[in-house]
Every structure is written in structure tokens, then in C-alpha cells.
Design goal:
This protein is of the alpha/beta class. It is built from eleven helices and ten strands. The strands form two sheets. It has an eight-stranded mixed β-sheet, sandwiched between helices. Strands 4-5 form a two-stranded antiparallel sheet. The protein starts with 7 loop residues before the first strand and ends with a helix.
Length: about 300
């Protein structure tokens, strides 16, 4: 990147935790926090699941429809571990002399990740904030440079006690924070609201804090990009019962088949099933009469 892009501040965040611990929701909460600071028109966010190239191939969408570049950009690589594993093979790039040379795909796309300020500078952004967020199931499942260069670690699960990962997480968080976070994990088994608690490690220290969840009624800021098979839906966990899809889409009329299904009573048994039931009942009655005749009748004589 050129030396003129230093007015773009860069923050690298890693979120790690087991599946279904709210890593995607946490990334959306970060985007919502940016909106409160810069305004919704000045914040743009992209999310790609297991598809790192899709983030950079769709950056132009952040700038195309707006006269001014956004003041804050968030790029979220969901399941970064599998995204990196998919980057096998090589890609042809030009060196400083204009000659083509082969470069590993994983190195090519990670270079763009680390040089995101240069990528944004090429598209007209001269100042502002860019936040790169990578979600991992295991802290050691990411690239070594990615882990070493993180400005902030957000921990959603502490791992199985006694394992390598759990021991390392305890060392990073410190015993007090580690066991406080573990207690919140246990409480979350009974109350999903406890998933909002997040442990963090920064250069200033570590601790536990509660992250406000995005309002259910608010449209999510992060735009899904990438292939359809790897793009997962943004699940918002609500404490209140959700309405069914039919209730949410009330203007649309049900089809005739749907109406028939909705009013259909319990299916009747077939004739064969009724016959089997009658035979079983008759056999049961005969069995009771037999035991009564054999054991009870002699006592009544």
C-alpha cells in the first residue's frame, strides 16, 4: 500500500468459540456500534462464510452507489479456518518487473487481508476506520500471522477443561476472567441470554463484558456475499416466541393445498390397522378370562 493511506485506521479482531455461540451476532453488534458512532449511511459491512476471496471481490459494492466513501468499513470472514483450507493451489501474479509468477492462493488472499488499507485506498477511501473480523471455532485454527496480529480477541467459549485449547485460553484470559466466563457458559445452558457475555483480551488487559444484542426488528447491516452453498442465514436469537413464516408474510394468500393441509384432521386408520387392533383386544380379553377361570374360579368354589 502507498504511504498516503495512513489516515485509515485498521483494527484486527478475532472471535473464537464453538458453533452456535453467537459469533455472527457479535460481529453484527460491532457493526451496529459503528452505526451509533458514524451514522448508518457512513457504515458498510460485508460478510462471507468460508469464502475469503468473496470479501475482496465484492468490496466495490461498498463504494459504487455512494458519492462519498464510507467512514467505517467492517469485513467479516465467518469460519475463517475452513475458508483458508479451501484456498489450495496457486494463482498467477505480476512481480515488480511485470513478469508473471506463481503464488499460493492462501498467501495471495491473506496479503489482501493484511493490506486492506491499500485495497480501500485504491477505491477512493482516504480516511476512516476499517475493522477486519475473523471468526474461528478454535483459536489455533487460524493463520499464525492472523493470530499474532490481532488487536482484540473476543472469546465466546473457553473449551473443554484440560485440553490444549482450554489451557491456552486460560493463560490468555487469566484465571479470574477464565472461570468467570466459564460460569456464564454453564448458565447459558439454562438461559440463552447468558450467551451475550464475552471475554476479551487486548493490549490493555482482559475482562468479561456483556455485548448488547442487535434489535430483532432492525435490519442487519452485514451483507452476505459469496457462493450460496456457503452463505448461511443470519440467525437472531430472540427470547420471545417467534411468529411463523406464514404470519410474517400475511399479505400473501395460502394456496389451496396449504389450506387443505391446515384444516385436515388426524388421518384415519386403514381397515387393516383396525382389524389388527380388534384382534389384539380380543386376544387380551381371552387371556384375562383364561387366567380368571384357572386361578380365581377354584378359590370361589
Amino acid at each position: 500500500s502507498s504511504g498516503k493511506d495512513n489516515a485509515i485506521h485498521h483494527l484486527n479482531i478475532i472471535i473464537f468459540g464453538k458453533p452456535n455461540t453467537g459469533k455472527t451476532t457479535l460481529a453484527e453488534s460491532i457493526a451496529q456500534a459503528l452505526v451509533r458512532r458514524y451514522g448508518q449511511r457512513n457504515v458498510k459491512a460485508l460478510r462471507a462464510t468460508r469464502d475469503l476471496p468473496a470479501l475482496f471481490q465484492n468490496i466495490d459494492k461498498l463504494f459504487g452507489r455512494f458519492r462519498k466513501p464510507p467512514k467505517a468499513v467492517l469485513l467479516f470472514a465467518d469460519d475463517m479456518t475452513k475458508a483458508l483450507r479451501k484456498l489450495s493451489g496457486t494463482v498467477a501474479v505480476k512481480d515488480s518487473n511485470g513478469q508473471l509468477e506463481k503464488m499460493r492462493k492462501i498467501d495471495y488472499w491473506l496479503d489482501k487481508w493484511y493490506d486492506i488499507r491499500g485495497e480501500l485506498f485504491k477505491r477512493g477511501m482516504r480516511q476512516g476506520l476499517v475493522i477486519m473480523v475473523a471468526a474461528l471455532h478454535r483459536f489455533y485454527g487460524g493463520d499464525i500471522d492472523l493470530r499474532a496480529d490481532a488487536d482484540l480477541l473476543l472469546v465466546r467459549s473457553t473449551g473443554t477443561p484440560g485440553t490444549f485449547d482450554a489451557n491456552k485460553v486460560e493463560r490468555m484470559l487469566g484465571p479470574v476472567v477464565y472461570y468467570a466466563m466459564r460460569q456464564h457458559e454453564v448458565d447459558a445452558l439454562r438461559d440463552r441470554k447468558e450467551l451475550a457475555w464475552t471475554a476479551f483480551v487486548a493490549k490493555t488487559g482482559s475482562g468479561v463484558f456483556r455485548v448488547p444484542r442487535p434489535p430483532v426488528s432492525t435490519k442487519w447491516l452485514m451483507r452476505n456475499v459469496g457462493s450460496l452453498e456457503t452463505s448461511e442465514e443470519l440467525a437472531v436469537e430472540d427470547d420471545e416466541p417467534k411468529k411463523s413464516a406464514v404470519e410474517l408474510d400475511s399479505p400473501k394468500k395460502k394456496s389451496l393445498l396449504q389450506e387443505k393441509i391446515s384444516v385436515q384432521t388426524r388421518p384415519r386408520r386403514s381397515k387393516k390397522g383396525r382389524r389388527v387392533s380388534i384382534v389384539i383386544m380380543a386376544a387380551g380379553v381371552l387371556t384375562v378370562l383364561f387366567f380368571a377361570w384357572k386361578y380365581i374360579w377354584p378359590l370361589l368354589r
